[in-house]
Amino acid sequence: MAVNIPGLIAVIVFYILILATGIWASRKAKKEEKKCTGNKSEVAMVGGRNMNLWVGIFTVTATWVGGGYIMGTAELVYDPSKGLLWVHGLVAFAFNLFFGGFFFAKPMRDNNYVTMIDPFQLRYGNAWTVMLCIPAILSEVFWSACTLAALGGTMNVILGIAPYQSILISASVAILYTLMGGLYSVAYTDVIQLFLIVVSLWLCVPFLMLNPASTDIVNTAVNNVYQAPWLGKIDLTDLWRWLDDFFLLALSGVCYQCFYQRLLAASSSAQAQKMCYAAGVLCFFLGFPSVLIGAVAASTDWNQTSYGLPSPYEKGEAGIIMPIALQHLCPVYISIAGIGAIAAVVMSSMDSTLLSSSSMFTHNIYKKIIRKKASDRELVWVIRISVLFFGVLGICLAMTTSSVYGLMFMSEELIYCTIFPQLVSVLFIPVSNGYGSLVGYVVGVTLRLLGGDSFFKIPPVIPYPGCTLVDGVYVQLFPFKTLTMLLSLFSIVSVSYLTSLLFKRGLLPEKWDIFYVSKNTDIILKDVKESDKETELSPINKEDDVGEIENQA
Length: 553
Hints:
- The protein starts with a helix and ends with a helix.
- The protein is globular, with a radius of gyration of 24 Å.
- By secondary structure, it is mainly alpha-helical.
- The longest helix is centred in the middle third of the chain and has 47 residues.
- Helix content is 67%, strand content 1%.
- Helix 7 crosses helix 8.
């Protein structure tokens, strides 16, 4: 396939615009550094905690409306074996933002944390925090790989360049402006990217729907014309699996550092909540173009297009149905606008995950554990090196995947079964301690691994009720992921209560108490904040080792 020169030029112009915005934002970051009396390195993580409300709304929305959401939604609507009813993202992502804003935004912002790992370090200490950081960081890397994979397939179809080339170029631009300006560059480029997403995708929809090769999507929603109805159906045997996937997407989003990075940069908890609610509404409506594109693709006689037969689904290309539809059902200049939209959603999520994973490593591992006396300049360089490292890791993973939606689910599953019950317990269950966290973590990871994985074609060790073999791959119809999460949460609470009781009453010797439960069995984050202002995480954190709070208690 020949390279689409006009399209390539348009994408280059788009990247220059984004890079220029990032450079401008980096200058704003330098001005904020001069205003701060604390650590300058944290300006890159949470800014000056004075993010404009509208910028906050747009950057939260742009982070959620990524390549997995946009292209994954179109993929599921088009897929004859799924359909619209299997698109959880529209409702689940919106619910996730409302849920996070209502329950999590206030306690996290009021305590002036820098990352979502801070409450764990306050409660459990440094050593155990490292283990909790691993799934949190990996989930961010998987998310960035998901968005890059979406862009690679798109540019290959529309521009005629190899996927690895587009992945490398796009990731390099995102890495560059993230290195330069930190959160400010990420947030302000998100505003530009979100504008391009809205304009470009809605510009493409009328041309897609009016293409003579496509029939009425209302008719094909319930009737088998060229393939199964795109509305889809949920069989009774699939209901529990559908609910499992819905709760996974609806709840796991509150465990991403990129979510809290924006909230912690807000000027107050009230503003952080407003950002979540507004972003939830926008996120829901921004999924509509993807639904329509998937519906049009399912309503198209591909034999009448330049794509020909067999159809994209029969060729195994359902995962890139959006760029295929843009390329073969739209005029060239319109398809170029579409590639701009997809590039925008990819970069808006890519930069967020890079900064999030780098923030957790730098602040919670390097600064608190590896180099407690590291200078501010050293920490800035650690952030930059981490951004580069996690960016390369995401690039490598993006080049190995075939399903955008599958990679997004893998990212969500990782934190749903491990981090979500941990975060709920550390914020809302005062009795939770390191012993309960340890057991809950082991329970969550073990049960999830024993349940197998259809994406990696790993057979289950525990065949839950309804486990069936589909096309040589075992599929769990039982909601085992939600069960795993609940059992992990139950383990945290029950073991925490039991160990607190045993140590408090002297039934276990104090020398066995590695988490210092016997010294302070009632440590809760609010008490720490009220009783010792010196150990509170300030807007620009002054504490060298938050993990030592329990030791000092």
